[in-house]
Design a protein that fits this description.
Elements: H1 9-70, E1 108-121, E2 132-145, E3 150-162
Antiparallel strand pairs: 1-2, 2-3
């Protein structure tokens, strides 16, 4: 007969201990990687939100120019679109001479500039009169948040005028 020996229980307990430690190490690494991935995703989401906020604040600044220009309660001298050769503040004619959107959101700085480009014939399909001309402007809004998010928007504006007289 063949004599077979049973495996030692001391050897089996050592293998179980090593296997358990390796398994815990793998689980710990997976947990650390998951936590760092979650923190990175949170930073990305915050940056996207800041970028979105700066875009909308800048867009509001440009829309404010159009609203002020078309508002009939504001006298012509206070309207933002003027034939001025240099860049100008579109809110210079308002009470207090300050940009109403400069601090629209916490820790946000908004700079808005309007530039007169030229006066020329309007781009229309039919010619109404020789006296109808168009002034062309560019408006730029530069929005910066303390977090570092920045957005710059440009808008072209065409304004119909009769003749070449300044208003």
């Amino acid at each position: 007969m063949i004599n077979r020996k049973a495996p030692s229980s001391a050897k089996q307990q050592g293998i179980v201990l090593v296997t358990g430690l390796v398994f815990l190490l793998v689980l710990t690494l997976l947990g650390v990687m998951g936590a760092s991935n979650s923190a990175l995703n949170l930073q990305i989401a915050g940056s996207l939100q800041d970028k979105n906020n700066t875009f909308h604040v800048g867009e509001a600044a440009l829309q404010a120019i159009l609203w002020l220009e078309n508002n009939t309660d504001i006298d012509d001298q206070s309207k933002p679109l003027k034939r001025i050769a240099a860049d100008s503040d579109p809110y210079r004619g308002l009470a207090g001479n300050s940009d109403p959107l400069s601090h629209v959101a916490d820790n946000t700085d908004v700079q808005t500039i309007v530039s007169f480009m030229e006066t020329r014939d309007c781009q229309r399909t039919e010619k109404v009169t020789d006296d109808l001309k168009c002034d062309y402007y560019t408006a730029t809004s530069d929005t910066v948040m303390v977090s570092g998010a920045r957005s710059v928007q440009n808008m072209g504006i065409q304004k119909e005028v009769i003749g070449s007289a300044s208003w």
